[in-house]
Amino acid sequence: MRFWYGKRFNSPDDVEPLICRSQQGRLYPDTEASPGGGRLRMLPFRNYVTTALLYHGRPVIDYFKAADPATLMGIMTGGEPSDHGRAFYFILRRS
User: Which residues form the GXWXG domain (predicted)?
Assistant: First the structure.
């Protein structure tokens, strides 16, 4: 994920979870790492209801919390067995 840029929210049922930037600067969805995209739903996480991104082709859920009008804090759960259940924390800024 060296060139990971962010996520693209087209609609609640059409999310591109892994947007990358090529070495030439072009943005593109990484459909190999996240086949089928994803969708948004309201789900509980640690006793709080949050907006969650459910990946269609992977056992992954991202949970989001707004930090300010242009910033989301995120935590990715699930993933591959090699992740050993570890969560990945990230920040998204609106561009």
Answer: 4-25
Q: Which residue matches tokens 């089928």?
A: 36
Residues 6+ apart with CB under 8 A from 40: 9, 12, 13, 15, 51, 52, 53, 54
Q: Do residues 20 and 3 lie in contact, with contact meaning Cβ atoms separated by under 8 Å?
A: yes
Q: In the beta sheet, which residues pair with residue 80?
A: none
CA-to-CA distance for 62 and 55, rounded, in angstroms? 8
The total number of structural domains in the chain stands at 1
> The domain containing residue 76 runs over which residues?
4-93
Domain of 87, CATH number, reads: 2.40.128.580
To the question of pTM greater than 0.90 for the whole model, the response is no
